[in-house]
Amino acid sequence: MIVVMSHKATEDEIRGVIEKLEENGFKIHLSKGVERTIIGAIGDKTRLGCMNLETLPGVEDIVPILKPYKLASREMKEEGTVIRIGDLEIGGDTLQVMAGPCAVESREQLFAAAEVVKKAGARILRGGAFKPRTSPYSFQGLGEEGLKLLAETREKYGLFIVTEVMDNATLPIVAEYADIVQIGTRNMQNFQLLKELGRIDRPVLLKRGMSATIEEWLMAAEYILASGNPNVILCERGIRSFETYTRNTLDLSAVPIVKNVSHLPVIVDPSHGLGKWKYVIPMSRAAVAAGADGLLVEVHPNPSEALCDGAQSLTPGNFEIMMNEVGRIAEAVGRRV
Ligand code: PEP
Ligand code: MN
Q: What is the DSSP-derived secondary structure letter of residue 164?
């Protein structure tokens, strides 16, 4: 439920309402807007009857949140969440592009990718050190060695790092090296991991499960928010469908829908969404036009030699073209790159 305070409510009145809610076992999420203060309260609804909240001074309205996700909902927080990492903003006016190879393969490969990413104007380097592969015989990633290479590359090129964590055991070490921790499609409903992500001080990039509805995806975000981490970025990366011409079906309709029902930033990954490099540029343009706050794309210095996902990786030249084209769309929809 949301308690909307009158714009004239004093600090004491706000505190009074919070205390009353806490006495009754509610968890509080305070949102101080320019116009008014909103107190989000999550707890046992049946206690409401005996609390008489509406009689407390400063209270203007009490509104129930009907959706199963509460903290992730627009009702709870009207303005869009902007996640800040240093001088970087995700969810603000500037479109953020996260780009790099599927997997960290070597220092040489990562430096070459970083060079391309930086030169084209993106600020976040992606690269997996722990890889969730369908086959146990495929390259599994360099593990901690990969994380160290990412950290070294961050220092050399001044980029931010996003990399995937696959389990609770490696979360502390991934969080130590990463600026943004990625949860892959296969782990979207790993609830133990989601709970633990609430306790780290790094933003989380939460990919949509390949068979997840939008509501299940938002409920996964709710786990992270409810366990204490407000910095969740949602990433649409394609869902399973009957279509076989693409690896997945990129659900771009999820972008305006999620932006409508949630305040969290949403980005799009057309690389995994389609699985073919040829379609990454047009779908990047479409994602930005649909209102995405950013993109996650795979770029490899030499896709034909990639140990993972080469077929969907852009060459350096194509990445530059993508950045230029996306920049023009971004401007057309009132954003900067
Ligand atoms: C990735 O980003 O490299 C990845 C494995 O993505 P997904 O979880 O979307 O398959
Ligand atoms: Mn990949």
A: E
Cα 41 to chain center, whole Å? 24
Close Cβ partners of 125 (under 8 Å, ≥ 6 residues apart):
98, 99, 100, 110, 113, 114, 117, 150, 153, 154, 157, 159, 160, 161, 162
Q: Quick one: which of 83, 115, 40 has its CA closest to 235?
A: 83
In tens, the pLDDT along 155-211 reads 999 999 999 999 999 999 999 999 999 999 999 999 999 999 999 999 999 999 999
Nearest residue by C-alpha to atom 4 in ligand 1: 184
Distance 128 CA to ligand 1 centre (A): 9
- For the chain, which residues make up each domain, given as ranges? 2-63, 83-332
Which ligand is the nearest neighbour of the Cα of 130? 1
Range 2-63 has CATH code 3.30.70.1140: yes
Partners of 90 in beta bridges: 83
Q: Report which protein residue has its CA nearest ligand 1's atom 9.
A: 185
pLDDT, mean over the chain: 96
Torsion 223-224-230-231 (CA) sign: negative
| CATH fold of the domain at 83-332 | TIM Barrel (3.20.20)
The per-type count for the chain, helices as H runs and strands as E runs, is: 10, 14
Residue 17 CA, distance from chain mean position: 32
- The alpha carbon of 176 and the centre of ligand 2 are apart by a number of angstroms equal to 22
* Model pTM above 0.90: yes
What is d(CA 299, CA 114) in angstroms, rounded to the nearest whole number? 9
Instruction: Identify which ligand lies nearest to the alpha carbon of 236.
Output: 1
pLDDT digits (tens, 9 = 90+) for 274-313: 999 999 999 999 999 999 999 999 999 999 999 999 999 9
The alpha-carbon radius of gyration of the chain (Å, integer) is 21
Ligand 1 atom at minimal distance to the Cα of residue 103: 3
**Ligand 1 nearest atom to the CA of residue 207, by list position:** 9
Q: What is the pLDDT of residues 10-61, one digit of tens each?
A: 999 999 999 999 999 999 989 887 788 999 999 888 888 888 899 999 999 9
